[in-house]
Write a structure and sequence with these properties.
By secondary structure, this protein is mainly alpha-helical. α2 packs antiparallel against α4. The termini are far apart. The mean pLDDT is 86.
Length: 240
């Protein structure tokens, strides 16, 4: 069971992520969208959507740092384990609260606005449940082991996560991991596998090119500026 969960399940989730994304792109290009419901209600969405997106970005950043920045790197810059634990605890909790608040607002909006609720699919409901469960379980696991220096997942979960990329997973590192962290990891892998089959797939088409595109030039609609330019005088045409 240990080998199946920590040695096989991560790759199953990754294969589903890649294969599902490719399939979705080839056969469901018109469905590759967030299916925005802003036309039905925008006031609450304008609050809930930024709260959720900023929260989930901070959550993802925290996971990337926690899993893929080795403990030796923070030791090299003289960051103590206690300082790292406090930063992870406070920052992770705030990011989780922000993301959960955004999700709850989005769910409330879907439940209370009839047109938005009618546009909600079964995949949307499943996505909300798994996403919310993953974030809440991570927060609960962190808070349940918050005393002292907390649980040092950088000696167990971190090396296991990095070992997956070498195709030689250290499954034994996950044997002594607290149950809450294990459940959080399993739900997280389930969420990764679900991404291509939900509206979360739109994260792969984020308009990053807008950050690098040239400025858009807007021309004035002032009628005085739209009139034909008067012909230049003789001395103004010289050398042109």
């Amino acid at each position: 069971m240990t080998t199946l969960i920590w040695g096989a399940l991560p790759y199953i989730a990754f294969v589903l992520l890649v294969a599902g994304t490719v399939w979705r792109f080839r056969y469901d290009k018109f469905g590759w969208t967030t299916r925005s419901s802003q036309i039905y209600e925008s006031k609450l969405l304008n609050i809930a959507s930024p709260v959720f997106h900023y929260g989930i970005l901070f959550v993802l950043a925290g996971h990337l740092i926690g899993l893929f920045v080795p403990m030796s790197w923070t030791d090299a810059v003289h960051v103590s384990e206690h300082a790292y634990h406090l930063l992870s605890l406070i920052g992770g909790t705030l990011a989780g609260v922000l993301a959960v608040a955004g999700i709850l607002l989005l769910i409330y909006r879907r439940r209370t606005k009839a047109p938005v609720f009618l546009a909600t699919t079964r995949n949307d409901k499943l996505m909300y449940v798994v996403l919310l469960a993953s974030i809440v379980l991570g927060m609960v696991a962190k808070l349940a082991h918050s005393s002292g220096d907390g649980y040092n997942y950088r000696e167990t979960i971190g090396p296991w996560a990095r070992s997956l990329f070498t195709l030689s997973p250290d499954v034994w590192r996950m044997e002594g991991v607290p149950v809450l962290y294990q459940i959080h990891a399993v739900v997280g892998m389930s969420l990764i596998a679900l991404v291509p089959f939900t509206r979360l797939v739109h994260m792969f088409s984020a308009p990053l090119q807008y950050l690098f595109r040239p400025y858009v030039v807007y021309r004035s609609r002032d009628p005085r500026r739209l009139t034909a330019r008067p012909e230049r005088r003789g001395w103004e045409r010289t050398g042109s």
